Each structure stands twice: as C-alpha cells, then as structure tokens.
Amino acid sequence: MKVRVDASRCQGHTLCAMIAPESFELDDVDGTAHAVSETVPAALEGQVLEAARSCPEQAIVLADEGSDTEGKTSTVAGVVK
Ligand code: SF4
Fold first, then answer.
1. Ligand 1 within 6 A of CB of 62
2. Surface-to-core class of residue 74, CB atoms within 10 Å of its CB (0-12 exposed, 13-18 middle, 19+ buried)
3. Would you say the CB of residue 1 lies under 6 angstroms from ligand 1?
4. Model's pTM, two decimal places?
5. Ligand 1 atom at minimal distance to the Cα of residue 31
6. Pocket test for ligand 1, best of 3, 30, 57, 76 (most atoms within 8 A of CB)
7. Partner of 47 for a Cys bridge, out of 4, 10, 17, 20, CB 3.0 to 4.6 A?
8. C-alpha distances in angstroms, 40 versus 28, 51, 64, 74?
9. Is the minimum distance from the CB of 21 to ligand 1 under 6 angstroms?
10. Whole-angstrom Cα distance, residue 56 to residue 11?
11. CA distances, 68 to each of 26, 46, 56, 72 (Å)
12. Phi-psi region of 17 (alpha: psi -120 to 50; beta: other; left: phi over 0)
C-alpha cells in the first residue's frame, strides 16, 4: 500500500501522527503532515488505514501497491484503486 498527504487539504490536526506515529510526521514550520515513507510496510497498514479514516480533512491518500497516489483524492473508505 502507498500513502501520501494532500498538503492542500491538511490542517495539521495531528490525528494521523497520533494514530500512526511511525507513518506520519508533522512539519515543524507549517504544521502540516507528511508520510514518513510513500510505501507502507505491511505491519503498519492497519494504523495507516485507521489514520486515513480518522483524518477530518480526508487529506490522506492511499493507493494499492503498483498504483500511484498522484492525482488521486482521498477516500474515507480506504484504498484508491
Ligand atoms: S489528520 Fe489529516 S488534517 Fe490532520 S495532520 Fe493528519 S493529514 Fe493533516
């Protein structure tokens, strides 16, 4: 699974980093989140999915491995195909 944060939607609520601290970090300057790594290790997929569902701005974009997160929009339900 792949992940990125849509910076234009992120409001820096920090929920993602609290739910999945190994997968999301907040920028010290502008306070927005970014993914630690685009590729999500299998062991962290559950946390990342939960973070995506919990993001109030739907700013977390997920995609299947082999797919691309660019140009996709977030879905609360889960992974963009
Ligand atoms: S929960 Fe969503 S809006 Fe909040 S910091 Fe994370 S990505 Fe940004």
1. no
2. buried
3. no
4. 0.85
5. 5
6. 57
7. 20
8. 23, 13, 10, 16
9. no
10. 9
11. 23, 19, 23, 8
12. alpha
Q: According to the model, what pLDDT value does residue 79 have?
A: 57
Ligand 1: centre distance to CA 3 (Å): 13
Chain segment 33-73, per-residue pLDDT in tens:
999 999 999 999 999 999 999 999 999 999 988 777 776 65
Cβ neighbours, 10 Å, residue 6: 18
Question: What mean pLDDT do residues 20-40 have?
Answer: 96
> At 80, is the pLDDT very low, low, confident or very high (cuts 50, 70, 90)?
low
Residue 10 reports pLDDT greater than 90 = yes
First and final C-alpha spacing in the chain: 11
